[in-house]
Amino acid sequence: MQRLFLSSRKVLTGREFHRWNRCFSHAAQKEASSLHDNGVAAADVVIPIPKIPHFDYSPPPYEGPSADEILAKRKEYLSPSMFCFYNKPLNVVDGKRQYLYDDTGRRYLDAFGGIATVCCGHCHPDVVDAIVTQTKRLQHSTILYLNRAIADFAEALASKLPGNLKVVFFTNSGTEANELAMMIARLYTGCHDIISLRNAYHGNAAGTMGATAQCNWKFNVVQTGVHHAQNPDPYRGVFGSDGEKYARDVQEIIDFGTSGSVAAFISEAIQGVGGIVELAPGYLPAAYSSVKKAGGLCIADEVQSGFGRTGSHFWGFETQGVVPDIVTMAKGIGNGIPLGAVVTTPEIAEVLTRRSYFNTFGGNPVCTAAGLAVLKVIEKEKLQENAFVVGSYLKDRLTALKDKYEVIGDVRGRGLMLGVELVTDRHLKTPAKAETLHIMDQMKDLGVLIGKGGYHGNVFRITPPLCFNKEDADFLVDALDYSMAKM
Ligand SMILES: Cc1ncc(COP(=O)(O)O)c(C=O)c1O
């Protein structure tokens, strides 16, 4: 039987091989015909090995334990639930701008950005300076005393939000921010029911796990009061890109699944963990309208799509022209410092005065000093504009690659939040899981670190630091091209 080795764990059977081979034969034929036009024999053409763009920096030598030693410690002392990318996990020891370095000093292009977190670039000097300066002066105080860091950052953050969204609560993570937002909505409305979207990821604590809607991220514990609406997924959804049609499900949930009143609707504008699914145009205005009529608040989860990542806008919800009642954020807000926030209106914020609400580290001076530095870097270096220009260029190049390889089912997203979905059959949209893993490993060997997501684990997630440039984009696409051609 004909067999193809895809990775050390996956061997394709004969039938699987034929399906896989079919995906690439189309590309091979196209390549061959263009070569014949140029009078060159197909067999003579070799795609050159892509080279990482030049970058003038050498990290200090690494003198720590080897990857194997760290892995052994991790296995012995850390939760068995922790997982690593790659057949041979990477020991990352240094970072500079859009690049990471392993323990041998080898440089990699970071196209995942610590899961859409490192927005200014690794170890940005302004952010590092702000952290070090504040740490040397005062590392922790709690909000029981005054300190300028939390106040200055809250003011700067509020200035980036529309309408009356100007009261900020700081948290330590995205999960905490969403937990708080959901509780605020329940307190404000006196209702319990919350509507979220299927395929969403909003965190993994008691309430947020309820809002998260992918079974592989949900444990079998009590999760109450969340209804999951049909996902307005333009690629896999039944209504294609007609956002208003999907939004009817929100109204139906309100009509048939609740008392007629709800606490909130929560959604990402572009689902990150769900595989870079940009909600169908027109969805949010229609869904928000139903929720508002039912007395609910609209929560925008900007944990991944905020801080200029979408390029066209500073916040993801702005791409659909809506103004939420509550905005939650984390990841990019601190360029890697543990920090999250909930921003809402003064009237809604008032509900937390009914009891004592306190968070020991929320608004910590070091974290908020870092947050302020991040905002300044995004503005000073025009990172949102860069995300737009480079992201559009990268998306065009990825879309062109889709014509070459049938395994690419969809290219989507905006700015530097892009997704490439792999399928073994374009018509059936059969997820190409093993191929995704294999190509990821190949890309790593070529020097490109890319993310993965989606319910089926068959979507490449491209969410690099926002200082990513066109040469980086070319390198990424060339590495993808090379890896696919070699399959
Ligand atoms: C959209 C979204 N919301 C919330 C979270 C939870 O954030 P954290 O992991 O910081 O708790 C995530 C994490 O990936 C996320 O992508």
From TrEMBL:
The EC code for this enzyme is 2.6.1.44
Source domain of life is Eukaryota
User: What's one GO MF term for it?
Assistant: alanine-glyoxylate transaminase activity
**Thylakoid: present as a keyword of the record?**
no
Cofactor(s), by name: pyridoxal 5'-phosphate
Query: What are the alphabetically sorted keywords of the record?
Result: Photorespiration, Pyridoxal phosphate
GO BP annotation list = photorespiration
Q: InterPro entries from the xrefs? A: Aminotrans_3, Aminotrans_3_PPA_site, PyrdxlP-dep_Trfase, PyrdxlP-dep_Trfase_major, PyrdxlP-dep_Trfase_small
Q: Provide the catalytic activity annotation.
A: glyoxylate + L-alanine = glycine + pyruvate
One Pfam family linked to the record: Aminotran_3
**Cellular component per GO, a single term:** mitochondrion
Q: Which family does it belong to?
A: Belongs to the class-III pyridoxal-phosphate-dependent aminotransferase family.
Q: What is this protein called?
A: alanine--glyoxylate transaminase
Q: Say which species the protein is native to.
A: Cannabis sativa (Hemp)
